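Cross-check.
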Amino acid sequence: MSAAIVVAAFVVGAAFGSFANVLIHRLPRGESIVSPPSHCPSCRAPIAPWDNVPILSFLLLGGRCRRCGAAISARYLFVEVATGALFAGIVWRFGLTLEALRFAVLAFALVVVVFTDLESGIIPNAVTYPGIAAGVVLNAVLGMWLPALLAAAGAAFVFLAIAVLSRGGMGGGDVKLAAMIGAFLGGPAVIVALFLAVALGAVAGIILIALRLRTRKQTIPFGPALAAGALIAVFASNELVRWYLTTRL
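Predicted model, tokenized:
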């Protein structure tokens, strides 16, 4: 894969990251994602096109609104860079293929989910429901619709059982997110993703409690752990499965 194509994938990903920022800000508030146009959250002034270039505008403006000078959250820059890096990594790993498209769509959805969960404690249905459908459709194009459906249903069942048994320790949004991940990954990659998610979530919880950033009675967003497990599975599920089988034989 040529460097030019990977760089182009980064640029495209950064542009999608800019749109992800719109979704992250507006979906939890129940706002339209198309109207009004992009504007400063502080002074409500419309953002000119030249001030809305992914990554560059934030850096050139020093992370402040041109009109009122209010600080703009560094999350906007981070999301654009992270989405660009994910798209570039996916294209580098899988080339310009339908498989790369499938994983890029998943990565975009996961970026939105992670930050809405961290900032608002919400995993939007507006992301997970279309995401489940998109995962099944994209896998159907690749001739894998049945494994995608089974993986989505299986992941949802497992996490629904956990939600019931934990009596509120896990929310319905996590169940739908697990189903979305299953719809995109299919099996056995979804098993790797969910196992890693549980392990990463447990470790993160222990660290947060040890640092006294959370108490045992406080909820800890699980969306980021699910997203991390899914992304690791995208890039390394086959290798992890082979390693596991090798160590067991």
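The chain has two domains: 1-95, 97-249. Residues 1-95 form one domain. Passed to J.P. for a second look.
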